[in-house]
Amino acid sequence: MEAVDQLASAGTFRVVKEPLAFLRVLEWLFAIFAFATCGGYSGGLRLSVDCANKSESDLSIDIAFAYPFRLHQVNFDAPTCEGKRREKLSLIGDFSSSAEFFVTIAVFAFLYSLAATVVYIFFQNKYRENNRGPLIDFIVTVVFSFLWLVSSSAWAKGLSDVKIATDPDEVLLLMSACKQQSNKCLPVRSPVMSSLNTSVVFGFLNFILWAGNIWFVFKETGWHSSGQRHAPDTMEKQSSSYNQGGYNQDSYGPAGGYNQPGSYGQVGDYGQSQSYGQSGPTSFANQI
């Protein structure tokens, strides 16, 4: 407990307030919601078959199914309305690939977000001491953004197929007794898909979070830093070239060719008294 207080007092957890770590925490939470709402799902439906001969009827046929939605393995018994004989049927479809792919991406994203958050908080100096850590973080973030988009789209299509395959009206068509007009087949309860709908929403929200975090991770890489250093260096080189080339140097000042006192202000060239004001006029006056 004292170690935690020391870390908190030293401002170690202050990094969580920065966008990079804050988004990682959100990614961690949203990944939990994504795989929990999909991977933990179990539901069912109930059907009713009312035969012309009431003794052969079955008014409560329960069909349960769950993740990973291998519906072709979900079996149930239904009356044939032909004596006491019953038929064994199963649902149609296997949608485990898209569901398991979605949950797998969510689990790995959860683990990586947790590990990255720990690194940001406790090993920030090592993370930033060379460019390898930010580069790996950037590449993984881009890959997870793409995987979230693919897995969420695949699971959205898979969920749509699951809803069709578990629609009570569609399941009733599988029963031979329901093909006879003398028998009455009715859906009693439809499966509740609200948590599965939520999982798709969280899947696309995770994609938005990871895609948005690409910029903040990119800012930690050497690519962004070198780009920032390149612009000031270019400006400094340009300014130095103008200062050295003949516009702002002393060529217009004391040492140059325009303001040097030796060119226009020296006494020996234009202002010396012996040139115009001494020997010539004095000798002429004496002769007079």
From TrEMBL:
Transmembrane segments: 21-42, 101-123, 135-156, 200-218
PROSITE patterns, per the entry: MARVEL
Pfam families, per the entry: MARVEL (PF01284)
Renumbered residue ranges of the record's region Disordered: 227-246, 251-288
Composition bias, Polar residues: 237-246, 271-288
Source organism, top-level taxon: Eukaryota
CC per GO annotation: synaptic vesicle membrane
Species lineage: Eukaryota, Metazoa, Chordata, Craniata, Vertebrata
Membrane topology: Multi-pass membrane protein
Keyword set, alphabetical order: Glycoprotein, Membrane, Transmembrane, Transmembrane helix
Protein name: Synaptoporin isoform B
Family stated for the protein in its record: Belongs to the synaptophysin/synaptobrevin family.
Subcellular location: Membrane
Record-linked InterPro entries: Marvel, Synaptophysin/porin
Keyword Nucleus: no
The UniProt record lists the keyword Cytoplasm: no
Species this chain originates from: Patagioenas fasciata monilis
Residue stretches making up the MARVEL domain: 15-222
